[in-house]
Each structure stands twice: as structure tokens, then as C-alpha cells.
Amino acid sequence: MDKVIIFDTTLRDGEQAAGAKMNLQEKLEIAKQLEKLGVDVIEAGFPISSPGDFEAVSTIAREVRTPVICALARAVLQDIDRAWEAIKEAPHPRIHVFLSASDIHRIYQLKKSREEILQASRDMVARAKKYVDDVEFSPMDASRTEPGYIYQILEAVIGAGATTLNIPDTVGYAIPAEFGSLIEGIFKNVPNINRAIVSVHCHNDLGLAVANSLEAIKRGARQVECTINGIGERAGNASLEEIVMAIKTRGDFFNLTTNISTTQIYKASRLVSEVTGFVVQPNKAIVGANAFRHESGIHQDGVIKMPVTYEIMDPKTVGISASRLVLGKLSGRHALKERLAELGYSLTEEDLSRVFSAFKELADKKREVTDRDIESLIAEEQRTVSEVYHLDRIQVTCGDRGIPTASVKLIAPDGQVLADAALGTGPVDAVYKAINRIVGVPNELTEFSVKSVTEGIDAIGEVLIKIDSEGVTYTGRGADTDIIVASAKAYMNALNRLLAVKK
Ligand code: KIV
Ligand code: ZN
Question: What is the DSSP string of 63-117?
């Protein structure tokens, strides 16, 4: 069977989603999970766009060895040189050059003629080719470009050495049948097309990104660009898990395969959600909390008798464990280790010790520790590893008569213990003001939400916040059985991200 190349752009287009900024350590962690997932190509970033992006791409290029590591570049000399600089240590490097092709972009944004665009595309692919054999080219806004002009550009860039031709539906405007015809037209009208792989990159503005990508595959495209949980610019990109599971579940229809280890999907989804702070909607296909839950009596009856009656996929195939085993305060380190392994985590002994003591603390407060609790614990542990300031303790008084008051102790980067206190309109406000008095970085809280990880009065509360500083949004998450402590942790998490960027 033919293979479809899975090109993941969570770290590049995914990070372009408003409020999805990730730090270096988080990007590296996601890249390593993508490697475990078996993606063929990781688009690690856009090196010219910022020193932080450059550092992230070059670190991933050095440390993630199996997939192709791709860097994005405009059709501009400096971009291409910088992209190469960032990926040159990767065992399999790729430069991805893009340039707008549609009249709309060309006339209103670039103010360039068709001839100039054609020339720059050809020249810049040739420039990238001097550095590396694996060169991808994207005529941006292809779905709103006259097909005849696209054919011309594609022929020219293949001649200049492009090995992958990516057809972006940049603004999510295409309709499946129409997009499929464009792909078919490319195969019929670009004479040297057999020298390159045709790829697609679909945005989800009309909710059609996955449908358009699948239609393109049906018409011969053999690379799909997608992101975990479908995150990305505006309404996002095609979701990797939906594309991969459609190809797998409907093998009878597509007759295609991918290199993806599907049992790693759920873990990748949770990780990206944790890192970005983007909650996955419950009804999201494949990875949503309800994706494999049956509520109606008739459906439950059917699934008990034979799962295939109402389940087209086995949840275990995407890494959702079916284990009913619940851990509690008497469970030992070995039981936790086994449970973690079943959930797809392999921790070092040192990390396991930290997670185990957090687990014991939680099990003292909570009768049953579920899989979601364990995932939340792991995420909380990972958040504290990359801290600049560490939250040591907080103390709050509040109620309907008194003035909410908080005192906090933080550990500074040099190890100094710093304490302060503040009054607020409520306990969370008081905590945030006290923290601000110590950290002293101006910012504005723009979003605050609390949800419980599981049911029950003893559930862990997860707090998600967003803060703005100098026009940039930073997300923070924190989890604890005490929601004021969770709120403080979330604020510290957002501030630490902000401080890391400023540093
Ligand atoms: O959406 C788009 O057109 C892009 C290109 C850079 C491929 O992200
Ligand atoms: Zn895009």
C-alpha cells in the first residue's frame, strides 16, 4: 500500500494560534513526542522570525534524530540562510520556502507582478537547494489562485530542485470537490510532476480542513500537513489525529497507510493541550473526552454485547486506556510505574520519585486517583521543572466579612526566599497582587477559568489563565485540590513563561 507522509506543523503553524506561545523546553518535549508518534516530518519553526524560534529549531535539529526536521523560510535570501543555519545539524534537514501566488495577495500585499513571483520562487528554491537536497515549496493561497498560474510556478520550482510541492488552502476557502480537482489538475498539467511529492496544507475556516486533505489524498497527494488537536492560525489546521485515523479506519476506502504509531495519539493530544493551555472540546473526534463515551441506553447495550455495534475504532488504538484499575493511598511506587507505562509515560527514576511523592500527597487527599489525575500530576511536575521563580507557599484569608488577604513566599532564581502580602477584591486577586509585588513584571490578566479534572468534591481543580504583556499573550496552567493554590500555580506558570521569553 502507498504511504502518506505525515508532516506535523504543530510547532510552527500550531504556534501561530493566538495565545499558543511555547517555550524552548516545551517545544523540545513536543518534538520528542512527535518522534515517538512516528511523524515523518516536523516543521520545527520559522527561524528568521525571532531568536527564540531559531534556538528552538536548532535545538530540535540537534536532539530529534529520526524525522525530517523542517524550517520555514519566505522566498528571501536571509530567511533561507537563517533556516539552513538552524537545521544544518539535523540528520534529515528540509527547507520549506513559501511565497504568495494569488492575485489577491500579489496585488494588495506584495505589489509584485506574476513574472516577479515566478522568478523569486525559482531563484529561492535554487538558493535553498545549494544547502540541502530536500526542498519544499508552497505557493501560498493556492486555492484562490488561477490553476494555470499554479501549474507554471510548480513546473518552474521543480526545475529549480523542489522535491515537495505543497498546495496550501491558506484561508480555508476551498470545498473538497473543488480542492480535489485542483490536485488532479496539477497531476495532469505539470509536466515534471513525477519528480516531486504533492502535499496539502489546509486551514479550517469553514471546518473543512480534514475533508479537503482527505479529498486531496484520494486524488494523489502523498503528504499532508497537519497539527495535533488541529491547532493553528485562526480556526486552525487539519487535525493530525483525524487524518491518520480516517486513513487507518477506512483503509478499505483509501488503501493507504501512514508511519504513525496511533497508540501515541492521545498522549500527544494531552501534551499539546497542556502546553498551550488549549482545552480539547469534549466532542472532538478521536481525542475528545466524549469521543468513546456512550450515553444512550440502546448504545450502551450494543457496546456491551459487541463494541463494533457503535464503536468504529477501539479506543486502545489511539492510546486511550480501557483500564478500570484505580490507584489509591495504599498503592506503591511499582503500581504507579506500571500505570504510567500503560498511559505511555516512561520516566527516569528521578522523575518517577518526584511524581510518586506528588501522587502520595494527592492520594492522602483523594480516595481514588484516576488516569486523568495522574496525567494532571505529570503535567504539574513538568511545569515546575522549567521555572524561573518557584512558588514556595501561600496563605489566604477570605470570607464575606473580611478583606481578602494573601501572603506568598517565592524562591528567586538565585535561591533567595522572597515574601510579600497584599489585599485584593477576592482571594485570587490578593494572591496575584502579592506575587506581582515580588516579581514586578507589568501584565494584565485577560482570561481565567477553573475546571475539575474528575467528578467529586475531592477532585483536582485545573486553572487556566492568560496574561498579556507588551502585546504578547502567555498561557498558564496549574492544578491542585485547592483551587486558590491551583490559581497561584497557574499565575506562576504564565509569569515564568513571560520571564523566560524576556530573558
Ligand atoms: O497556510 C499557509 O499557507 C502556510 C504556508 C506557510 C504553507 O502556513
Ligand atoms: Zn498555514
Answer: H--SSEEEEEEESSHHHHHHHHHHHTTSSSEEEEEEEE-SHHHIIIII---HHHH
The answer to whether the CB of 453 falls within 8 A of the CB of 376 is: yes
Report the nearest atom of ligand 1 relative to the CA of 166: 7
Beta bridge partners of 73: 97
Report CA(204)–ligand 2 centroid distance (Å): 10
The pTM for the full model equals: 0.83
CA distance 202 to 172: 6
Task: Calculate the dihedral angle through the C-alpha atoms of 336, 340, 346, 348, rounding to the nearest 10 degrees.
Answer: -30
Distances (CA, A) of 308 to 258, 289, 479: 23, 19, 36
- Ligand 2 centroid distance, CA of 102 (Å): 15
Neighbours of 446 (CB within 10 A): 12
Q: Kindly state if the Cβ of 201 falls inside 6 Å of ligand 1.
A: yes
Instruction: Using most ligand atoms within 8 A of CB, pick from 10, 13, 43, 233 the residue to mutate for ligand 1.
Output: 13
Query: Which atom of ligand 1 lies closest to the CA of 142?
Result: 3
- Closest-CA residue to 413 (of 437, 395, 431, 386): 386
Q: Which of 8, 74, 153, 203 has most ligand 1 atoms within 8 Å of CB, for mutation?
A: 203
Identify which ligand lies nearest to the alpha carbon of 17.
2
CA of 379 to the centre of ligand 1 (A): 31
Q: Is the CB of 140 under 6 A from ligand 1?
A: yes
- For helices 371-385 and 349-365, give the axis angle rounded to 10 degrees: 120
Q: Would the CB of 7 count as within 6 Å of ligand 1?
A: no
* C-alpha 493 chain-centroid distance: 18
98 CB less than 6 Å from ligand 1? yes
Coil, strand, or helix at residue 402?
coil
Tell the burial category of 18 from Cβ atoms under 10 Å away from its Cβ (0-12, 13-18, 19+): exposed
Ligand 1 atom closest to residue 9's alpha carbon, by position in its atom list: 8
Q: What is the pLDDT along the chain (503 residues), one digit of tens a residue?
A: 699 999 999 999 999 998 888 889 899 999 999 999 999 999 999 999 999 999 999 999 999 999 999 999 999 999 999 999 999 999 999 999 999 999 999 999 999 999 999 999 999 999 999 999 999 999 999 999 999 999 999 999 999 999 999 999 999 999 999 999 999 999 999 999 999 999 999 999 999 999 999 999 999 999 999 999 999 999 999 999 999 999 999 999 999 999 999 999 999 999 999 888 888 999 999 999 899 988 888 888 888 899 999 999 999 999 987 655 678 888 889 889 988 887 878 888 988 998 999 999 899 888 788 888 888 888 887 777 678 999 999 999 999 888 999 999 999 999 999 999 999 999 999 999 999 999 999 999 999 999 888 777 888 999 999 999 988 888 888 999 999 999 999 999 999 988 887 77
